[in-house]
Amino acid sequence: MNRLRWVGEGDIWELDMSTPITLEATARAVSNDPLPLGLSRGTRLSRPKQAEFFHRFMATPLIPSFSPLAGGLSLQKVLTFPFPNNWFVSLLGQFDVQRFVSEVKKTEAFVRGSASRLSTLGKQLKDKSLYALGFCSELLLTPEDTLLLTYDTYKCDPNKNPRAKAVFNHKFPLHTLTAEAVWPGLYVDKDGEYWDVPLSMAVDLASLPAESGLSYHLCLHHHSGRPKKFNCDDDVEVDVEAPPPASLLPGLSLKSAVSYRANMDLWRGITPKLEACKPYDIFLSSPHVSVSGIIGSVMTAAFGENSIRTKLEKDSEGVGGFSLHLPSVNSGFMADALGRASLTAQYGNFQKLFFDLTRFHARLDFPHGLRFLSGATSVAQELLNSRQPSLEAFQRICPEVAVSLQQQIVGPFSLRAESGIRIDLKNGSNPMTIHNTVFAVEYALQVLASAKAVAWYSPKQREFMIELRFYET
């Protein structure tokens, strides 16, 4: 179970983000951009399998989602085919409700009698442009090897190309190996903009997540073709002057990360659990206050157009890590340290019917360790010399902050809110701003030990989605 669990405060590698703009429902965070919050982080369960679970066990025949870039409100339904237990094959269908209503209102016959209205509705439902289809095949080759193939086609936009993905995964005793090819690959940057890369391939070797100790990650990544902004609606203007993130440009990159994590309990509740009933979520059944810390380093070697990020992605003070750019051979190298500190506080065992879970989590990220060390050294020197440190020095040591608050309302239902906090000391009137807030209603599936259905909404992205998550905190 520990191998399946996502330790939210321990993830320092690039992660997928959930999004309803595609049938696959995930987008990869752009390299070196802030990681997604826990609520918006992509789940490891494929979208067709999530839909099948909702249909079969939660009496949900249609799954709603919303995104302006995907046409607005849509409904999803999956059909699974009877194959052996080691082979999952499905067809995921999506119906564009918002476009259907808009097209019906435009027809003159709709304002006539009831017979004309029914005829109009029937004709509109036959319109292929209202539907999107996704084929998924997931084959368990051996107990350690899986092969996932997906192909999504969209009728809502004739200019939108189909999406395909092939993923091979092998589980070693202490590592996982993943080989992936996606065309086009969908990425999201720190400003919430989505980008399509014509072809993205990666080979990834990672140690299994652990509660504490050493972990490492090695990834070989290749991008082919010029990235462009994702846009399903032709009426939305695209800023042609906005350049794509440098790390998405064509080229080959080799990235490695090594980190060490330590945990410590400041307090652990000793109140006995109720014997008459089990907790709604086994991972949220122990009141405690704990802290954790991570230190590590990331090194990247790039070959191709993406190597210019070693020059472009420096911060204004020029201390964004060690970097080397060699234009003559179109290559570059970057290295930097990183750090993270987290605090988690929980009250309640999540067993009683009302208000038996209050959980708070705060995370401080220092993605540019060398910049932090430079700022800390500058501040220390100024204080030792009895001088006031500059705002620029203080800005270098300011972390990226993320906070999360979860409160049980009744039974398995709880409310949860997450948000990032930006610190800009140069903005004297408002040095701290809240961004990327996500709200959610969670329903714990008690019979599955640690699983939940999550309905979340992002005001910034104006996206709504219902997901199924296992062994996540």
Q: What composes the largest sheet?
A: 19 strands, antiparallel
Order of secondary-structure elements: EEHEEEHHEEEEEEEEEEEHEEEHHEEEEE
Strand composition percent: over 45%
Kindly state the percentage of residues in helix. 10-25%
Overall geometry comes to: globular
- The whole-number mean of residue pLDDT values reads 85
Which value, in Å, is the CA radius of gyration? 24 Å
Number of discrete helical segments: 6
* Strand tally: 24
CA(first)-CA(last) distance:
13 Å
The low-pLDDT segments are 1-10, 232-239, 314-319
Class derived from helix and strand content: mainly beta
Describe this structure in words.
The chain is mostly beta strands and 473 residues long. Helix content is 12%, strand content 46%. The chain contains 6 helices and 24 strands. It has helices at 47-57, 97-106, 114-125, 309-312, 369-384, 391-396, and strands at residues 16-18, 26-29, 63-67, 72-80, 87-96, 131-142, 145-154, 163-171, 175-183, 185-188, 194-197, 199-207, 213-224, 228-229, 251-268, 288-304, 322-326, 331-347, 358-366, 400-410, 413-423, 432-444, 451-458, 463-470. The chain has a 19-stranded antiparallel β-sheet that branches. Strands 1-2-10-11-14 form a 5-stranded mixed β-sheet, with no helix packed on it. A hairpin with a 7-residue loop joins β1 (16-18) and β2. The longest helix has 16 residues, at 369-384. It is globular, with a radius of gyration of 24 Å. Residues 1-10, 232-239 and 314-319 have low confidence and may be disordered.
